[in-house]
Structures are given as C-alpha cells and as structure tokens.
Specification:
The complex is a heterodimer of chains A (293) and B (157).
Chain A lengths: L5 E4 L3 H10 L3 E4 L5 H6 L7 E4 L9 E3 L5 E4 L4 H6 L1 H6 L1 H7 L5 H6 L2 H6 L8 H6 L3 E6 L2 E6 H4 E3 L2 E2 L6 E7 L7 E8 L10 E10 L2 E10 L6 E2 L1 H7 L2 E2 L2 H10 L14 H22 L7
Parallel strand pairs in A: 1-3, 2-3
Antiparallel strand pairs in A: 4-5, 5-10, 6-7, 6-10, 8-9, 11-12, 12-13, 13-14, 13-15
Chain B lengths: L1 E8 L2 E8 L4 H8 L18 E4 L2 E4 L12 E3 L1 H4 L7 H9 L8 H14 L7 H7 L11 H12 L3
Parallel strand pairs in B: 1-5
Antiparallel strand pairs in B: 1-2, 3-4, 3-5
Classes of the chains: A alpha+beta (293), B alpha+beta (157).
C-alpha cells in the first residue's frame, strides 16, 4: 500500500489547477513511474496527490499550421517513439526517449514528468535543450511560456508554482527545419539504467560548413546544459576532423560534472569529450553533411 | 478511502472496491487470485509483475489500481485457454526458457505484447532483447528466452 492520504482525479487541465489550488501541499501524479517509487521508498511530501493520469488533452502530439510541434506533457515515451510527426521532424527526440528504462517504463512514463522532476539525468531533457523547447505552463494566474533553459532552476527544482501544471512542450520550426541530430546515452547497462552522461547534438550544415551547432548534455552539471562556448566556436566553421577535435577539446570549458557513486568527475569528463565528438559526427551526417572519421 | 472500479480481467468483467492507495499488483494477487503476477522489486525494475493493460505492457507494481477502472487487463492465467497453454507459453517450455519460473509469467506477457506489436515483421535478436529489457531473469542468461521468442516469430498463425 502506498502511503499517501488522498488522490484526487482531474479530468481536465482546469480541474487539475483548481485541485492544486484547493488542496495544500498537493503534488501532481501522471505516469507514476517516479512518484510511486518515491512513495514506495517512504519519502515524505507526497501525501496529497492530484491525479492527471487520465487527462486526454495532455496526451496529444500535434503540428500546427506554423509548423510548431506541440507535445502534450502527458504523452508517454512510447508514444513519442511511435509518433510519425516526431520521427519525421525531430527524430533525435525519438532516439533519446527510446533509451529510458525499459518497455514497461516507456509505456507509462510521461515526457512532462521527466522534465518536471528537474533532474539532470532526464533522458529527454538534453535533446529538449538542444531543440530550444518551450514549456507551456498553465496555472491559476493564466498561461505562460518559458524556454526550457529557464525552466530548470537547480537540481530537482523547476519554475513551476504550486498551482501550475506543465501542459505541453513546443518546438518551433526555426529549431528543427533543416537540422539533423543525434543522441547517445552512456550508462553502465543498456537498459533500466540512469545515464552516466547523456549527449544530444543538433546541427545545421550548408556547403560543408557547420552553420549552427547545439550541443547539450545531461549529468554534466547540476541541471541539463548547453555548451555555449563550444557552439560559438564551431559556428560557421568548415566541417573536418580538426573541427571535431576542437569541439571535443573545448567542451570541457562548458561542463561541470561531479563525482558520485556512479562515476568520478574525471571519468565523466572523458565520456563528455568522447561523446561531444562522436554524437556530433553522427548529427552532421543526419543533417546531410559529410561523414567524418 | 475506497473507490469502486470495474475492470475486465482476462475477458471477464469484475467490479470491486479498492483502496485508492493500492497498486494493481496487490489487487490482482490478493483479491483476484492472479498469482502469476509476481511481486518482485516493487519499483518497476524487474518486470515480474508485468500485465497487459488495454494491450500495453505495464508493471502493475507501479500502477494504481484505481487507474484500472474501465480497462482490460490480461495476465498469464488468461493466456491459457481450456487447459491449453498459449503458443508463446509452449515456446518457452520447448526452448527450455523456464528455470526457477519466477520471471516467466511477466516475461511471457512481455513476449505476448512484443509478438502482437511486431506481427509479420522481421525482427533481430537485438530487437527481441530490447523488447524484453524491462524483464529481469537471473537463471537463464536470456539466450533460451530469445530463442523462444524467435520461435514464436517464425511460426505461422
């Protein structure tokens, strides 16, 4: 028996907001793959749950006439990997979320829950950073949209007020049209594991030049992060092996990994350097650029 | 606090009152006699409690029983019909994919979902492994399980 006191079911987003306002210290439960485990472990702070598991309006993936891809926060990882919209336009996200847990977890866990947990190891987060995803939030004060980089405030802490709910995640066409990307999760096991390092690289290539590079990492700092100095350094440069070496070299200036029981700081830095190169090489190919050894 | 739910279990409708704090695993095992659904890790890592919910492979230990209201649940008990085990269960027996047996019912449900999803497709052993990566088996080393799944994939309906 899970040790919570109450679990109020919401059928719509507005019902969920009303419940969050009415019930003090209430927490949202969606897929349950994190909250129920915390409850199983006896963690406090989850006594009053607002259940958004069944809200259908949160479970849609759509593309509007402007080309904005809108992913409902309640969409499961499995649904993302199967979505034609995602596979066609932002396949890198499909690659990323297919590395989460195992099939059972991917069937239940939601992309909204993954980012709202605020953990640096969230497998979807680095790719959403690379795609400049926008978080569409709704609360008692109305709606607001914020870039994912501003959404993460610190480890386990995101910019979501107690009465607010993440409704969807938007990726605008200027962030994916003409881009290619790749993701790699380095972990100790091939499944059911937490990333030692997650790396997402998204880029645009023209005439053998790297027009735009977005390189993002998970577990390379307290929150997922973008490698801005490396991105600036690489922008507009001719694609060759030397450039890839420079990217791998420079990326150390952008990250801040720590030692934990999973891996030492030094080991993580080694993986980060290696992945910066390998994943970007693959992203360049995906973007229609030359293949580099 | 209790809530009344109605679910379809292996083709039969059941209405029962559940505590809102109960997992589907507890309800299936303790109240509905589905002892094939094993309580392994309890945190969605081992897959021994796997069932199909509206055809979707799910760890019933991290699924609230109240969420099952209106849903169709399939367990290994329901896969055997009229005293005959299913084609998949038989493939497990033939391939020697059962040793201690604790993971088997959950593994069989993973295979059932995998086969239904990949019907008519050519799948690699790697894809079979990925499709079963949420189910742990500490006896077989997985090879015989992958063999059993391959055997199911190659059989004609």
């Amino acid at each position: 028996m899970f040790q919570f006191k109450n679990c109020e079911k919401a059928d719509t987003v507005s019902e969920a907001i009303a419940l969050l306002q009415r019930i003090p210290d209430s927490r949202i439960i969606a897929g349950g793959t994190d909250i129920l485990i915390k409850l199983h472990e006896g963690k406090k702070g989850y006594e009053n749950l607002v259940d958004i598991h069944g809200i259908q309006e949160l479970k849609q993936i759509s593309i509007n006439k402007n080309g904005d891809i809108v992913i409902g926060s309640g969409v499961s990882f499995f649904k993302i990997t199967e979505s034609e919209i995602i596979k066609k336009h932002i396949n890198v996200l499909s690659v990323a979320v297919s590395t989460v847990g195992g099939p059972q977890v991917r069937n239940m866990a939601t992309i909204g829950g993954n980012v709202c947990n605020g953990v640096t190891s969230a497998d979807s987060a680095s790719t959403l950073f690379a795609l400049n995803a926008v978080m569409n939030i709704e609360g008692a004060d109305g709606k607001r949209d914020i870039p994912i980089a501003d959404f993460y405030l610190g480890p386990g802490k995101v910019d979501l007020k107690s009465h607010e709910i993440l409704v969807s995640i938007t990726i605008t066409p200027d962030n994916y049209v003409g881009y290619g990307g790749h993701f790699y999760k380095y972990a100790m096991r091939n499944a059911m594991d937490i990333a030692t390092i997650g790396c997402s690289s998204v880029c645009k290539v023209e005439d053998g030049r790297l027009i735009d590079l977005r390189l993002a990492f998970g577990v390379a700092g307290p929150v997922p992060l973008r490698c801005s100095s490396t991105e600036e350094m690489a922008a507009g440069k001719e694609i060759n092996s030397q450039l890839l070496d420079k990217i791998a070299d420079n990326v150390r200036n952008d990250v801040n990994p720590r030692t934990s029981w999973r891996a030492s700081k030094e080991f993580r830095l080694q993986i980060i350097t290696e992945l910066a190169r390998r994943v970007t090489v693959q992203a360049i190919t995906e973007a229609g650029g030359p293949s580099i050894e | 606090m209790n809530r009344t739910i109605t679910l379809n279990l292996n083709g039969k409708e059941k209405t029962l009152s559940v505590d809102i704090r109960e997992s589907l695993l507890d309800v299936l095992r303790e109240r509905l006699g589905q002892t094939s659904v094993k309580h392994g890790c309890g945190v969605g890592e081992c897959g021994a409690c796997s069932v199909l919910i509206d055809g979707v492979l799910t760890d019933s230990c991290i699924y609230l029983a109240i969420w099952a209201d209106g849903k169709s649940i399939r367990t290994a008990e329901g896969e055997s019909k009229d005293g005959e085990i299913s084609r998949i269960q038989k493939a497990y027996v033939d391939a020697g994919a059962v040793q201690c047996g604790f993971c088997t019912p959950g593994m069989v449900m993973a295979t059932t979902a995998f086969i239904e999803k990949n019907k008519g497709k050519k799948v690699t052993r790697e894809e079979i492994r990925k499709g079963h990566s949420g189910n742990l088996c500490r006896c077989t080393g997985y090879n015989s399980i992958v063999n059993a799944v391959e055997e199911c994939m190659s059989e004609k309906e």
